[in-house]
Amino acid sequence: MKNFAIIVAGGKGLRMNSKLPKQFLELEGIPILVRTLQRFKEALPNIELILVINKDYVEYWMELEERFDLKGLSIKTVTGGASRFHSVLNGLNTIETDNGIVGIHDAVRPMISPECIRKIYSKASINLAVIPVVVLKDSIRKISPSPKEGIEAEELESVSVNRSDYRLVQTPQCFELNILRKAYEQDYTNTFTDDASVVESIGQNLTLTEGEFQNIKITTQEDMFWASSYMKASK
Description:
eight-stranded mixed beta sheet, Spore Coat Polysaccharide Biosynthesis Protein SpsA, Chain A, 7 helices, 12 strands, 31% helix, globular, single chain, alpha/beta
């Protein structure tokens, strides 16, 4: 089956306190988004890449394509929607075949290894809906009531829960194409926290597979520092 990757890069990166969205910030001299796209092509050379990007940054992206000589990757570019759900749907609607595996990946997760990408896609070709997860390293507590803006942590009640009952979910989340299409025929609701939750809502079982701790979602300046340090140490 043909492999596709929808790379979601529509965010504005407000938590990074940067003029540029975080996916365009340079990590060791190369923009995060470019690294992510290159990583997928390294893992699966024949993969079809679909980049979903904020309409305000299409021209900037075209400049990056020229600067980093990415034309050869044959990246299909579409603009994002009002939410992640709608952005993924926009990308999904560009796929013209009826047979394939589609991985949906956060543009700001450039640290995933090619081996992990290949493993997830391979499992999805058998299990149809596969998501990478990692165990929690820290103890966790359930907050009650749900915290609201302006409420200090010490004012909230909490109870300890068993961290072994939980997993942290990563991307790429990979699905058989027609299952994903059926899931995205639904109307959007705010209960859809990721693509797995959209697919699960139609009754599709999910298969969990081991992700990688280095596959972090770069969101803050601290994440940038960690990713840069990891890359230097890995050389």
